[in-house]
Q: What sequence folds into this?
């Protein structure tokens, strides 16, 4: 056993004991976080506007601060972007994580000196929990690859901004730098095709023990490795022991992964977001990921089926139940106050609190990590229809993860009133408009992880027949514009 491997075991034991300490005192832990957030919030313009000086408990907080999404918080964020201090959090943030927006283009999520450790330590702690539970630490001596965004950052008003994964790359500890791949230069390549090819060249003959990334990205990497070498991943990397992932569900990819690998490897699931690193898989024996209750984030939960009510019941951590679908609301030490991330979660355990991501409160498509939303597809098809003099009765979008041939794609089921003269050109026009609005989708297309969308024509009245078949014809029922699975697609295919 190497010194590094021995040290990792000792450190893992220490971190595991710390995690057990706060996870067995969830209510006390969250109350402490809440008080610390309110104390700091009183020093800010947001805190003054919402009378933080008079907040003494949760109920005061709920009454005085509305639940909000990015669009509602944007006026404050814009002031921070412009260089103003003490707006959402004392001082200025260190970074902005720039993400794909909804109605206003790019989103700028602040990362502060206090919130950065949450993003950097959680992934580390997930690995340490694995070591503590399994006793296996030999992989720390091998090479570790992290497929992520470019670490090159822009700067405005003294604040750096870029993709979250690129920002976090600046905080990889020194003892891992020699093991970390790809190189800084390769990670900084802006073109994904060139980047993935460079990563393959740089890593195919290395002793890889950990691979981390969104499953669709890693799958592309594996396929290119196999094309270059003609070997399975297990032959190339015989000491590969861990696959660490987050962002999308791994299960649809698992069979393909194991075929590419030539076997199976242990996996660790993470729940990261620009707004915070919310949870990670802390054990292999229980379902779900451990909610990070001590990481500068205060959580609220609203039952998903009550979320759009006029006055939904707001719950704190001690009031949630296993198996119920909740919308998660956060307040953080980056200055996000009662912020609706948009995710829905379901608890698998309350001792300690473990959860799984169950979806989004609004319809979406993110089978590949693209987070395409309804507004993006609706705007795209409207503009393309105007260009091609097309009339649409109805449409919906679903991912095709495992096509019979070629790359995966978004499948658009469209019922036309008036068809385009050139269906291929029409599809390409829609696709380019989605790319213009959604940087993640554009990256996947440019990186040859997805191909241009495919249009499948639905016969006349096909959507009405579908709605009738599921008992939702008429009234206020609407066909979902987006799905993250193929349940609707499978029913529509029966009519084609």
A:
């Amino acid at each position: 056993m190497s010194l590094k491997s021995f040290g990792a075991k000792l450190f893992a034991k220490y971190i595991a004991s710390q995690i057990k300490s706060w996870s067995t005192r969830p209510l006390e832990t969250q109350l402490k976080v809440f008080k610390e957030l309110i104390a700091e919030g009183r020093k800010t313009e947001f805190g003054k506007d919402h009378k933080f000086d008079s907040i003494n408990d949760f109920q005061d907080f709920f009454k005085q601060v509305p639940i909000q999404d990015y669009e509602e918080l944007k006026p404050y964020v814009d002031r921070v972007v412009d260089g103003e201090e003490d707006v959402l959090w004392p001082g200025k943030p260190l970074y902005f994580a720039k993400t794909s927006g909804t109605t206003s283009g790019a989103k700028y999520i602040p990362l502060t000196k206090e919130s950065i450790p949450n993003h950097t330590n959680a992934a580390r702690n997930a690995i340490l929990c694995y070591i503590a539970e399994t006793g296996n630490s030999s992989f720390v001596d091998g090479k570790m690859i992290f497929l992520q965004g470019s670490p090159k950052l822009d700067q405005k008003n003294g604040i750096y901004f870029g993709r979250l994964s690129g920002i976090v790359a600046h905080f990889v500890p020194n003892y891992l730098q020699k093991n970390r791949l790809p190189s800084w230069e390769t990670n900084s390549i802006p073109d994904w095709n060139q980047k993935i090819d460079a990563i393959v060249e740089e890593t195919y003959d290395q002793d890889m023990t950990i691979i981390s990334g969104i499953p669709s990205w890693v799958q592309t990497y594996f396929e290119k490795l196999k094309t270059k070498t003609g070997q399975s991943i297990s032959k190339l990397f015989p000491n590969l022991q861990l696959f660490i992932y987050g962002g999308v569900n791994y299960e649809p990819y698992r069979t393909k992964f194991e075929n590419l690998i030539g076997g199976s490897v242990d996996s660790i699931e993470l729940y990261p977001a620009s707004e915070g690193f919310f949870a990670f898989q802390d054990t292999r024996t229980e379902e779900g990921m451990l909610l990070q209750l001590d990481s500068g984030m205060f959580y609220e939960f609203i039952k998903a089926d009550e979320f759009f009510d006029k006055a939904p019941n707001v719950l704190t951590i001690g009031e949630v139940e296993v198996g119920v679908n909740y919308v998660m609301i956060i307040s953080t030490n980056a200055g996000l106050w009662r912020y609706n991330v948009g995710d829905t979660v379901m608890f698998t355990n309350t001792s300690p609190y473990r959860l799984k991501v169950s979806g989004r409160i609004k319809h979406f498509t993110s089978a590949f990590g693209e987070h395409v939303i309804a507004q993006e597809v609706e705007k795209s098809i409207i503009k393309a229809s105007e260009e091609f003099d097309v009339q649409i009765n109805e449409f919906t979008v679903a991912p095709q993860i495992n096509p019979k041939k070629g790359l995966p794609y978004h499948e658009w089921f469209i019922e036309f009133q008036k068809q385009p003269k050139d269906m291929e050109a029409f599809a390409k026009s829609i696709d380019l408009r989605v790319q213009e609005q959604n940087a993640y989708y554009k990256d996947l297309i440019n990186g040859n992880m997805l191909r241009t969308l495919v249009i499948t024509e639905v016969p006349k009245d096909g959507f009405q027949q579908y709605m009738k078949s599921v008992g939702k014809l008429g009234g206020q029922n609407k066909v979902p514009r987006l799905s993250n699975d193929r349940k609707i697609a499978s029913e529509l295919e029966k009519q084609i």
